Amino acid sequence: MERYWNAEMECMDRxxxxxxxxxxxxxxxxxxxxxxxLYRERMDAAGVKPEDIRSIKxxxxxxxxxxxxxxxxxxxxxxxxxxNQVVRVHASSGTTGKKIVVGYTANDLDxxxxxCARALTAAGADNTDFMHVSYGYGLFTGGFGVHGxxxxxxxxxIPVSTGNSKQQINVLKxxxxxxxxxxxxxxxxxxxxxxxxxxxxxDIKLRAGLFGAEPWTExxxxxxxxxxxxxxxxxYGLTEIMGPGVAFECSEQTGMxxxxxxxxxxxxxxxxxxxxxxxxxxELVFTCISKEAFPMLRYRTRDIVTLERGVCSCGRTFxxxxxxxxxxxxxxxxxxxxxxxxxxxxxxxxLGNTAPYYQIIVDRVNNNDTFEIQVEISPDMFTDTVGNxxxxxxxxxxAVHTTLGIQAKITLVEPKSIxxxxxxxVHVIDRRKLH
Length: 435
Ligand code: ADP
Ligand code: ZN
Prior knowledge:
GMP Synthetase, Chain A, domain 3; alpha/beta; 2 domains; binds zinc ion; binds adenosine-5'-diphosphate; 20 strands; globular; 4-stranded mixed β-sheet
């Protein structure tokens, strides 16, 4: 039976939702125009006045904002309220370049917790559950974000943060955690540590987890579900818009509902900026319509996704986004072919037999791109004969070629030789950038 944190919002009919969105959009646009120089200058330059925005149908008239805008106004230049109303700041973990800083008022924190409470409730959590948070606490939004949501739900929160995996397993066991939240790669790393310690999934009480902050595939989901004996749900967010909880999965597990009463999504062509029709794949753009301290207008996330508006069996009316294939700036162009690391993860996991640890190494030699995938073999393969390993290399090479249309050099490496991530994993080493 599907449960909701806030059925009135989550299941609102489209007309009412659009009316609410239009009202909130108009108010936000007026407020940022009056309070944030960058928005005022940019809207003036585009010839758009706040009064030109009368409903969500006018959204496309607004100029885009970019990550570079946050860097240029570092640290507080885009804040829309005086600093004495800002009760918390966070900063991006800096996966791609210089840190960016965002802020929250008390109302913003409450709204954020509500979004995460919706995600946790959709995953089946209630106030009898124990929530093990192994997202990092600190400037990164992960830990504090889901922490607030779990407290709102009334769960017993265990704020473990990242690191010291053995200790984490002991806490899982002794404290009776029923829910866990971390990056999907750390979930697998914990499963690996569990096995090494001789702890089985029957020794722990975990029944579900919310995983996000990096792309992960359906194959990886099955792997996590099987190894930890849980239901693995996806949760999406980004620092610039709020943190985790911008979108979350329901029991159907076929995409993440976007909290549309707070964030309006659009899909655009990343090259032309043109808004794409329903169902098309493109860059996800968000407009915040209820935030006070840091409301972004038409923010270019660089995440490549598709949106799906059909009826969901869970009863929620919020639009669903498909798992992001990755960011447009994560996409590699190797010998002219577009390659997302997630495609390689899919190939490796679908072949079975290999551990999902891999690293892509790209370089340029004599003006040609070199493309190597180092794949960690699982401990049971390690005992295999040389012939088997050769066979395995060939299978991977052929599967990669079939999926991507280009040849890669496959190198099998020893178990545990690829570094384990506690937060977001690093799958790509692009040496071309150093030349
Ligand atoms: P940084 O930009 O430094 O990595 P963030 O934590 O703000 O810091 O990263 C947000 C980004 O992480 C998103 O834009 C998206 O690319 C990725 N991300 C977050 N959640 C998911 C998810 N569930 N699936 C895929 N990618 C995700
Ligand atoms: Zn649903």
